[in-house]
Amino acid sequence: MAEQLSAGLVEALLHYRQQHPDALRAHPRDEHLLPLFTALGAAGPTARARAIHCSISDHMIAMDSYAFERD
């Protein structure tokens, strides 16, 4: 997802379950991704994400944060 965010590949992000065979297992429900999609939409169509924090919690949970910047 980080690569798709920074590249502005919105359609790929929205269809993340079709992008990887284990996506449904890793993300059985959408509610934890909806704030990301809301921020992405609010930033506008030309916005790009910049990682401002990247970490892994408990060896499995990504705790990444992004700032959205407009061109």
Describe this structure in words.
The protein is of the alpha+beta class. The protein has one domain (2-69). Helices cover 41% and strands 21% of the residues. It has five helices and four strands. It has helices at residues 2-7, 10-14, 16-19, 23-26, 34-43, and strands spanning 48-53, 56-57, 61-62, 65-69. The strands form two sheets. Strands 1-4 form a two-stranded antiparallel ribbon. The longest helix has 10 residues, at 34-43. It is globular, with a radius of gyration of 12 Å. The model has no long low-confidence stretch (mean pLDDT 89).
DSSP, total strands: 4
Instruction: Tally the helices.
Output: 5
For the largest beta sheet, what order do the strands appear in spatially?
1-4
| Strand fraction | 15-25%
The CA-CA distance between the termini, in Å, is 20 Å
What number is the mean pLDDT?
A: 89
Q: Structural class, judged by helices and strands?
A: alpha+beta
Radius of gyration of CA atoms, rounded to a whole number: 12 Å
Which of globular, elongated, flat, extended, rod-shaped describes the shape? globular
Pick out its properties.
two-stranded antiparallel sheet, two-stranded antiparallel ribbon
Short characterization:
The protein is built from five helices and four strands. The protein is of the alpha+beta class. Strand 2 (56-57) and strand 3 form a beta hairpin.
